Amino acid sequence: MKSISTLPLWLSILIIAPLFAQTRPATQPSTLPLRSLGIAQVLGLDPKPPLRPKNLPAGTTMELDLHYGDAPGRGQLLDLYLPEKITAPLPLLIWIHGGGWSAGDKAGCPALAMIPRGYAVASLNYRLSQEAVFPAQIQDCKGAIRWLRAHAQQYHLDPNHIGVWGASAGGHLVALLGTSGGEKEIEGNVGGNLDQSSAVQCVIDWFGPSDMSVFFDQAATAPNIFKADPDRSPIATLFGGPPRDHLDLVRLANPITFVKKGNPPFLIVHGDKDTLVPLAQSQMLADALRKAGDEVYLEVLEGAGHGNGFDKPALRDLMADFVDKHLK
Questions:
Q1: What pTM, to 2 d.p., does this model score?
Q2: Which fold has domain 54-327?
Q3: d(Cα 125, Cα 147) in Å, to the nearest integer?
Q4: In terms of C-beta density within 10 A (0-12 exposed, 13-18 middle, 19 or more buried), how is residue 324 classed?
Q5: What's the CA gap between 108 and 104, in Å, rounded?
Q6: Among 124, 1, 131, 112, residue whose Cα is nearest residue 69
Q7: pLDDT digits (tens, 9 = 90+) for 95-148
């Protein structure tokens, strides 16, 4: 990974921020382990991600670096975590890391604490924007979900109960997974298994962009680090140039494009002091889902930024209860 000094300003902020916001590591948690993770790890930006997760619950088996696609390198790999004792097919919670679509790794997985609650957990890599522009990222995620369904019997997974959770760029991807289930124009064929569905049964979206056609208009009216040079933002890198020059891709990338009646339940969480992704992005998506008649909960965290300020017991309980409600 590049040194911090050579990274763009927005990415350096994400990596450096945890140095000023560390908390004492938790012991084995009973709910989601937000307290034990720095912002960089939650966003998938840990400069030296551990080979073995620091917060791995006791009695967990690991299947690391499983290939769900044929791309070289680490872009189409996933890790799968299972309890040692399995008596019935397990609901699956998938973590998708953030990092502006251009950084991050599957090794930092905050969903592992769901394993003692009776879940299997997967954590995905996807091709980053310097390797391939959109829609490669969402097509990788969809290919990974089809792969997991195709191998459900082998790994004792319940293919009818799959949820996704992601932060920032990962929040965008899980939101797009949630709204675009069954949309052939964005499905792709990564890894094959086209007889399997890439639809999911619930979504936890942490501060992900939802409509990049208005992102910079919203950023211009609030404190935001991207408004000074939007053409060099991670969104521009995602599309291979300014969004105004790639409107067809922008439409496909916007989770809000595919909102319709019948989308899975959403839990959206956003800080009201986020200076990277405007709060209005989550509010727009929640409003659209609600208008369509879908189940959606928007939790706005007062004083929280882009990941910092999310260490709240009430939020951990809310998320665990949401997952239990929709996957068990």
A1: 0.87
A2: Rossmann fold (3.40.50)
A3: 13
A4: middle
A5: 9
A6: 124
A7: 999 999 999 999 989 999 899 999 999 999 999 999 999 999 999 999 999 999
